[in-house]
Amino acid sequence: MLSNSGRSSNSVPGTLTELFFEVLDKFHRDDAYQVKRDGTYQPISHAEVRERVTLLALGLQELGVTRGDRVAILSENRPEWAFADWACLSLGMADVPVYPTLPAAQITHILMNSGSVAIFVSGDAQAGKIEEIRSQVPGLRHVITFANTKAAGVDHTLAEVEAMGAAVDSAERRAAWKSAALAVKPNDLATLIYTSGTTGLPKGVMLTHDNLYFNSRTALTVLPFTLADVALSFLPLSHVFERSGDYLFWTAGVSIAYAESIDTVPLNMSEVRPTLCMSVPRLYEKMYARVLENALSGGSAKKRIFFWAREVADKWADEVLAGRKPGGWLAMKYSLAQKLVFSKLKERTGGRLRFFVSGGAPLAPEINKFFYAAGLTILEGYGLTETSPVISTNTPAAFRIGTVGRPFPNVEVSIAADGEVLSRGRHIMAGYYQNADATKEAINSDGWFHTGDIGVLDDGYLRITDRKKDIIVTAGGKNIAPQPIENSIKTNKYVSQAVMIGDKRKFPVVLVVPNWDQLERWAGRKNIIWTQRSQLLEMPTIKAKMEKEVAKQTAGLAKFEAPKKIALLEHDFSVERGELTPTLKVKRRVIDKDYKALIDSLYDSADARMA
Questions:
Q1: Rounded-to-10 torsion of CA 567, 572, 578, 580
Q2: Please, which contacts does 552-556 make with residues 24 or more away whose CB atoms are closer than 8 Å?
Q3: What is the pLDDT of residue 552?
Q4: Residue scoring higher pLDDT (475 or 50)
């Protein structure tokens, strides 16, 4: 079993409430948080954060919510999310984040299993979901909205709860509250996060204060931050990746600006001009596709300049990544490439970005290298909800494309005999809530957590190859890791999504959702006439085009790895149809089941040809 452990780090356990008060005493920014109101970004100072959280905590006490209770938060990213979180943590309660994209039916299990006694909702739409299921959650006593008015089923507005706190506010109450907050123990439960899981009901991951405290403190030892930094927060705070990132930014004194929504990220980037951003690979895939589309849709001169610049930047990146300093003619050409092409890409991110952080799923090395060559560094990391979350990450000082970096200091990583990545340390969850069997299955008697991912350690850098349960074993006994193949296919400009199928089958096939903007443009150039997209999917010319594009991306694969057939789908996979998790991971088994007839037809047609 191969093993690796990072350098030493903070060794004293701590709590998130310690971080909260430490930052309030240390930093006095006018823009601790930023939120867009009335068309412009408005700052929220550390002083205002202290006041809002204090009054909210006192108000929750007046409602009778007490230490050890669970309180859910169903909201998009916004400052009130953070206020509710800090207030709950300060009272010794565990909060239960709920994805705002979840339909009402999927929220019931989370509220029931967690035993949540109260829930914060962002507004009328989320309140409506709770109103729909409230009769099924008898333990839910309080519904509190961040909105200014109460929709049906809402008991209190946030302002009303803060007013309850203000009514009993006194120096003595504040002192008692702070004292109790700082008396929270490192091993106390901080949050219950329900994993989106690709199979079965979500399990509640129990993360302690020290789990998340350790993550923030340790990240500060390997990632560089300054008080000039501004982070744009747009991944759901209900996911541990963004939430832990926001704890880290808070601890470092970084200003946190909330995007209006995932759809407005490009606009908000230009407004906030962030220096730091965290995202899942899907954002970088879309940015990459947009850059290629802009280059290819221009005239011949624009195309030549773009591909010349890309070739120059690629050579520059090879030199830098090899530890050499590009000079002479290459340095001059790279400087010109930056001015002509890549400066425009940087401007779209606001022009100040120091680095992106990528997590949640594997990032295609081709995309990572493209951004690096363009002068935008993406630090790819790795972790799970159960590891609170970071196990490893690339850093500006230790950066290797195609890997997820070196393990965090004081984080142990081992590779089991079957290739599974194991990890051990203070970052490992306390267990699954009310599920001892699942906990025992995930964490062995020596404290090693089984990640379910397959990986290798190379010179101290961790490389993830696939999910263990996603490995395709063909009928002929060949093992195929689908994720890297899917990621390669998705870099093609004509492809939006791709999922490989083939477990226990004779050979792999791939389901492809076209990038309709690109495909329809191509069809127009070929004088193909259609009125509905479904008609395009049935045309032999279109099928041949997409087969050719997929073949380009899989040309270097072993014969048994390459998909033998493709099927085209009209619509992207979605969370609402249960095909994606809230973190946009494909539920491969759901896809295999829901598209069984289509998949079977691929094998039937192949068998018919061979008969």
A1: 100
A2: 552/492, 553/488, 553/489, 553/491, 553/492, 553/495, 554/485, 554/488, 554/489
A3: 94
A4: 50
Distance CA 328, CA 331 (A): 5
Q: Would 246 be classed as within a structural domain?
A: yes
190-241 pLDDT, tens digit per residue, is 999 998 654 568 899 999 999 999 999 999 999 999 999 999 999 999 999 9
Do 208 and 38 meet the contact criterion of CB atoms below 8 Å apart?
Answer: no
Counting Cα atoms < 13 Å in the Cβ hemisphere of 170 gives: 4
Among 204, 235, 270, residue at a domain's last position? 270
List of E strands, 289-408: 355-358, 378-383, 390-393, 406-407
Query: Is residue 101 in a domain?
Result: yes
Q: Which domain holds residue 543?
A: 471-610
Question: 4 falls in which pLDDT band (50, 70, 90)?
Answer: low
Residues above pLDDT 70, as percent of the chain = 96
Count of domains forming the chain:
2
The whole-angstrom separation of Cα 142 and Cα 156 is: 8
Identity at 359, one-letter amino acid code: G
**pLDDT of residue 611 exceeding 60:** no
> What is the pTM assigned to this prediction?
0.86
Work out the pLDDT band at 295, boundaries 50, 70, 90. Answer: confident
352-399 pLDDT, tens digit each = 999 999 998 889 999 999 999 999 999 999 999 999 999 999 999 999
For the chain, give the longest Cα–Cα distance: 86
Among 77, 356, 367, residue whose Cα is nearest residue 233: 77
Other CB atoms within 10 A of residue 444 CB: 12
Q: Residue 167's CB: how many other CB atoms inside 10 A?
A: 11
Q: Comparing C-alpha atoms, which of 176, 184, 221 is closest to residue 13?
A: 184
Indicate if the pLDDT at residue 1 is higher than 90.
no
Q: Are 94 and 190 in contact (CB under 8 A)?
A: yes
**Using CA atoms, how far apart are residues 484 and 66, in angstroms rounded to an integer?**
47
Extract the runs of DSSP E, i.e. beta strands, from 261-415.
276-279, 355-358, 378-383, 390-393, 406-407, 412-415
Average pLDDT, the chain: 93
**CATH number of the domain residue 515 falls in:** 3.30.300.30
